[in-house]
Amino acid sequence: MFPVEVGAVNDDYLGSIFEKYLHAKKIFKNKEVLRHSYTPKELPHRREQIENLAHILVPVLKGETPSNIFVYGKTGTGKTVTVKFVTEELKRISEKYQVPVEVIYINCEIVDTQYRVLANIVNYFRNESGFEVPLVGWPTDEVYAKLKEIIDARERFVIIVLDEIDKLVKKSGDDILYSLTRINTELSRAKVSIIGISNDLKFKEYLDARVLSSLSEEEVVFPPYDANQLKDILMQRAVVAFHEGVLDDAVVPLCAALAAREHGDARRALDLLRVAGEIAEREGASKVTERHVWSAQEKIEQDTMEEVIKTLPLHSKVLLYSIVLLDENGELPANTGDVYAVYKSLCEHIDLDPLTQRRISDLINELDMLGIINAKVVSKGRYGRTKEIRLNVTPYKVKNIYRHDIQLQPLLTISMSSQRRLV
Ligand SMILES: Nc1ncnc2c1ncn2[C@@H]1O[C@H](COP(=O)(O)OP(=O)(O)OP(=O)(O)O)[C@@H](O)[C@H]1O
Ligand SMILES: [Mg+2]
Q1: How far does the centroid of ligand 1 lie from the alpha carbon of residue 89, in Å?
Q2: Which are the contacts of 84, defined by CB distance < 8 A and separation ≥ 6?
Q3: What is the pLDDT, as a whole number, of residue 7?
């Protein structure tokens, strides 16, 4: 080990940063337990859902096929973690009693086509069947036929968990659900049950009535957590994650209260706690305080906004950029007509067919709903009503995001004055 000559770097700025780290108390004991991927051994305030799921699945141990289950609730209410917890437990017990149960978990945000879902199921059995379907290329009905053959190779129960099932249906329709929820009539040895999970409460409207009724033979609802419940969930992790005495008493209740305001999202609560700890650590602070939680809240909101802007459709991005230019030129608040004029000339600049003003007016409302801009309708007396449009993010942030987008890069060189010449 090299000796650290503390005295020699005392006046130097970089040295003082190192110093601070050297002497700072450690904040985290085990940060991993605050990550999304960590599954705790106990799930406070989900006893009712765990028991419901267990009751629906337990017939399997007596050799009966469990009903299909539709699980829904808002984001961060513990659906994924609870279903995984219960199905793992079921698998453990079924092994003990030598009941053949297989649980196949598929996240449809990642595996988002009918073909890939079917291929994933077939490939789950690759060791047993010695067979693997390529991830593209076969006709879908052939994969489905193979799936039936492989599943039905022996007597067993196969539970297929389709997490984020709405993503699959929105992208590729519900044919696959129609087939899978009816597959038992075509099998002679094996029995299949489906657990569908979704946080999109409107998703049911996309489903064919027959698919919906067979998928939701049973429904398990996950209500949002309230602040007290979130506090318990955080406390359970905080004692493992942080060194003793590092968290100010007010920190966990504040994270819980802020996340409760955001529709009771446990993921948000855990993120707040982790990011607050990271900010304190970076500052070289010896304690995490309320102030760090507020900074964490701000950072998370900024990051979320960035993500939302990145995933906007192209025309909304161009539209947003016209508002950015107006902002830089001190011309906000602007009305829809002003924004539309700039938008049109930007489209011309990047060879894009502009949308109609009516459509742009809808997109302005969408940007407003996402919180990226503020579009307030104001009455102009006998001149009718008009929108006052303001920007809710900094122009710098938008430009920074567009810098990485080849199609939008040409916009960055435009200034308002050159743009005026374009009009
Ligand atoms: N009751 C609980 N006890 C402990 N941790 C929990 C509990 N509920 C949720 N969590 C944690 O909160 C995070 C979010 O939970 P989960 O991923 O299960 O949410 P979800 O309902 O599936 O959300 P989404 O709809 O966005 O997928 C996870 O890190 C999970 O471990
Ligand atoms: Mg989930």
Answers
A1: 17
A2: 39, 105, 161
A3: 46
* Ligand 1 site, residue 108, Cβ cutoff 6 A: no
Cα separation of 273 and 257, whole Å?
12
Q: Which ligand is nearest to the CA of 41?
A: 1
Alpha carbon separation from 194 to 54, 68, 88, 209, 362 (Å, rounded): 14, 5, 15, 17, 39
User: What is the pTM assigned to this prediction?
Assistant: 0.81
- Terminal C-alpha separation, the chain: 67
Q: What CATH code would you report for 226-308? A: 1.10.8.60
Number of residues assigned to the chain: 423
Q: Give the distance (Å) from ligand 2 centre to CA of residue 122.
A: 23
What number is the average pLDDT over the span 10-18?
A: 69
Cα separation, 243 vs 14, whole angstroms? 27
Per-residue pLDDT, averaged over 294-312, amounts to: 92
Residue 10 has a pLDDT of: 54
312-422 belongs to CATH 1.10.10.10: yes
Q: What is the pLDDT of residues 153-167, one digit of tens each?
A: 999 999 999 999 999
Domain boundaries, the chain: 47-222, 226-308, 312-422
Instruction: Evaluate if residue 419 carries a pLDDT over 70.
Output: no
- Per-residue CA distances from 11 to 8, 17, 137 (Å): 8, 11, 66
Fold of 47-222: Rossmann fold (3.40.50)
Percentage of residues in the chain with pLDDT exceeding 90?
70
